[in-house]
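Sorry to interrupt, but I need a hand with the structure work. Please put the record directly below this note.
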Amino acid sequence: MAEELRELVRRQRRAIADTSHDLRGPVTGLQARLEDALADPPTDPREIVEAALRDAERLGDIVNDLLELARLESGGPVPTEPVDLARLLRREVAHRKPAVATTSHLTPGIVVDAVPIRLARIVDNLLANAERHARSHIDVRLTAGDTAGDTAGDTAGDGHAVLEVSDDGPGVPDADKEKIFDRFFRRADARASDEGGSGLGLSICRQIAEVHGGTLHAADRADGSPGARMILRLPRRRP
């Protein structure tokens, strides 16, 4: 019990330190822009306001993500409903306009008990990550039971839904396959491709998966070619 309490305190301190570090950037930027506007009145006010608005939006995104993490970690009851995963995936893929080709292989009739808006958030985040890193192609695959090449997968018919989102980008090094789910962790290539990201997206996605009794992890592509594969496993709804 004492060790669990110490670990909880360590996690809270680390979360506070990480949050403070990530909030400092947009707060400092916002303050500097406003000070420059006061010191140099002839400066174009529209340019100052637009830059300040971008900083404010980034602050809002970080705060909203932190509130979502707090809600997920509170352990409160989660009202769920039956969700047809293939239908949800088709809708989410259709809403996006990626610069690369996207192929979907969706097994119909796979239903899970979940909060639809939270599952949609996982799908949106996994697709956005794949789009940032893909060179030419993204593959979305939904199956029941085991996934080929997934050593953490299940045997067929074990009652799980398996969603894989793969891209043909540089992939995720083994040393970072768990780190990418840490709060505020952002690899150098992720910062270069999306400077405005908060580094909380995958952490929130894993929390959502766990709240629904599932798992989310990173792996290499099943066929051994370069790229990354994100694997979401959720318990299927029992008849």
